[in-house]
Amino acid sequence: MKLLVTCLCLLTLAPALVAAAQPNIVLILADDLGYGDVSTYHDSDVRTPNIDRIAADGMLFTAMRANCTVCSPSRAALLTGRYADRVGVPGVIRTQPDNSWGYLRPGVPTIADELKQVGYHTAIIGKWHLGLESPNTPNERGFDDFHGFLGDMMDSYTTHRRHGINYMRRNAAVIDPPGHATDLFSDWAADYLRHRAQQPAQPFFLYLAYNAPHFPIEPPEEWLTKIKQRAPQLADKRARNVALVEHLDHGIGRVLATLQETGLEQNTIVVLTADNGGSLPHAQNNDPWRDGKQSHYDGGLRVPFMARWPGHIPAGSRCDDAGLNFDLFPTFLELAGAKPAAELDAVSLGPVLKGQAMTTPHRDLYFVRREGGPAYGGKSYEAIIRGDWKLLQNDPYSPLELYNLKDDPQEQHNLAATNTKVLNELAAALRAHIQRGGNTPWQPPQR
After folding, report:
1. All domains in the chain, ordered by first residue
2. What angle, rounded to 10 degrees, do the helices at 71-80 and 328-335 form?
3. What pTM was computed for the model?
4. Fewest CB within 10 angstroms: 109, 139, 149, 168, which?
């Protein structure tokens, strides 16, 4: 049985997706950037003209979800094309081992590994969050160049420490650069692009993983002042978040400008998305979806997603198909002329980017998060989407909830008690996913 999924493109169809030369690839991943904090989606108190321009010059996706409600599992899935628990990362990998809930499985190819096989130079700038030591450092997982932060989060954007430890690295070397992390990552990305422009014979993959706007909500003072002058009615907490997002957007604009200045723009596909929804306690916005980060309601999962490739993706196009961030893995491989492995859980967005209907085998969308502390007890909780139906928990101890997303996109009416047939079918499918994930250890081997 095949499921026909259509994508609405507002302009003419694109030419062939794979150019004569392999395209450069820039993947920009924001941290906790809420769907409602990107102004291209709806009127907002935040202005993101540079992010919006990626969508205006290419394709805006309205129904993409992150692979998890929190950082590490989303990143593990994105970089491997597999569900996070199948690569050993059902929960957040933290700098404190007694509260760490994942271990990236050695030997699983990353997108960087695969692109290197077909001639790409590979780089990560920014936040890694998939391991602090061998064998799970970026240079050991396919990246030729690493300039960024190994850990989970920074206690300050300007001191770059976590629990008093410096996790900033230039490949394996410890570094201690001054400045706001968003500015540093934007500077380093621009420097990388200028250097690659001098190596035109080799395509590149740049994974630019900002830690903004993850808390602490710490915008530069001049940006906060600007927001408070423009919108004095905003509460301080909200004003700080708006300033942090707009400062991030400014950094992204600098990266886009560098692509143009260096002549790389035409043969570079740029994709922007986020690792999960925004954090409501930190005044981030996921409108119109319910709830936020850590939640399996769509406010925790629906994320900004847009792609630009001049001359290939029609400007001003739009896609309303549902997918997951890790679908970029086979998409990028196909763009590079490589064949994705059959065992991937992700599916390619290639037809969509060409403006065509996308026909794929039916698949469920599966989500898992494992967490510690008294609210979770080290246990996992899951969700699954099948067509219009969504089954979920938001902690390991509560009953399953069932929603029809077509009739109830804000997930207000739990139908678990009245649609037991659907509930039982989805619960059985969810158990099968959980069993598959159980094959993979999620703690490092004992030493």
Report:
1. 2-361 (3.40.720.10), 365-437 (3.30.1120.10)
2. 30
3. 0.95
4. 139
